[in-house]
Amino acid sequence: MKWRNRSLRRRLVISLLIPLLVVSSLMLLEVRSNAINSTNQAFDRALLSSALAIADRVVLIGGKIEVDVPYVALEMLTSAAEDRVFYQVSTAQGEFITGYEDLPPVPEKFLPLREEPVFYDAVYNGETVRIGALSRYVASVRKATRFHVLVAETMGTRTRLSEDILASAAARQILLIVIAAMIVWFGIGQGLKPLARLEEALNRRSPSDLRPILHDVPIEVRHLVGAINQLFGRLENSLKTMQRFTADAAHQLRTPLAALRTQAELGQREKDPEKIHQIMDTIAASTRQTSHLANQLLASARAAPEGLAGRPFDKIDLCEITRAVTGSKVPVAIERGIDLGYEGITDPAWIMGDATLIEELLKNLVHNALTYCPSGSAVTVRLEQNTAKNKVILTVEDNGPGIPVEHRKDVFKRFYRINDARYDEGCGLGLSIVKEIAARHETKVKLTQPKEHSGCIFSISFDMAPLDERKEI
Prior knowledge:
By secondary structure, the protein is of the alpha+beta class. Helices cover 49% and strands 19% of the residues. The chain has a 5-stranded antiparallel beta sheet with strand order 4-3-7-6-5, covered by helices on one side. Helix 1 packs antiparallel against helix 2, helix 7 packs parallel to helix 9 and helix 9 runs antiparallel to helix 10 (430-440).
């Protein structure tokens, strides 16, 4: 199991235990050092006592140092343990007097010995020993000289005592870590109970219940709950879009599909080739209209404010899009005998928007103009830049029959159609799509006519992208 897939409780406990173990290890190292120092201090006093007892028995007779070693002093070191004790008495010049001649000498860093005793560790006969050394004067009537006393003791008792102290401290540390882990384990369980209650509440919800989560949760997960609420909001908008699309498609496609079926059945029964050709023409026209209706329904779903296309806007060149869409419609305009052209700026016009939706907006405006204008008309797509107001104005102008005054306030409604033979080709969605796309870009589409029944002018004003967004990437 990968680390990131483990339970949160386990991860938190391990995250606590690792630094706690590191700190405990450092503390045990300090305890070990203190235990060794404390043990040495206690046992070194006994070494010093033995060395002083031997030094007190050193005398100078006839110019020669003699020693009466008090073995009782040495027995004090070994009476309570199995450690062995060694001693040595020598002159300051290193001349051996008595004891164990091969005892490790005093390290050079302690030489020359003074009145203060010194203690050091060494190896003697394959064992680690602790040695205490001191220097004293002995004098007679005619002479005075300095001598050294060394007392060594094996370190078995010292080592066992320091190990006992360390083991006791380690046991306490382990117990503390175990208790801390248990407290954290159960404490985290208590802390996660609000999340468990939140889980139960979400499990009780129906798939269609996308209301925001209003449960009281810890501060640490409020951002997560906020993100889930935002996701719920987007899902709800997507569901509304799909429901609207489904309802519109069911309502609008039922009639043309039924008509197609009827025409097809008539064609199957008809024997006259001329009538069959007429029926096929009718089916072809109905198919084109139904296909156009389906495309408009899809475009309407994408353009809806609550639609799936609610992604962040990008920096786009409105001039490039406008010229490309206008150029793509030229063959249709030539076929219908309409003069379609582009006027305005040729430099990049940067705005923040959705390129796909802007293309759909312009295609609908140009398509409407080419559909409802008679042969010989002129349609002009114009793009102007108002630097003073930081705006880019897109205009589609034609000199066709225009829209009657009584219908102008309703032409932007969904599925609104004018009861006129000239407008039979439409499905009532084109201008509503234009309006919704404009609203998505926080602007409006404006319809004007120079005079009654003398063409239409649709204009949309877009905010220019900020200067830093207009820089080329």
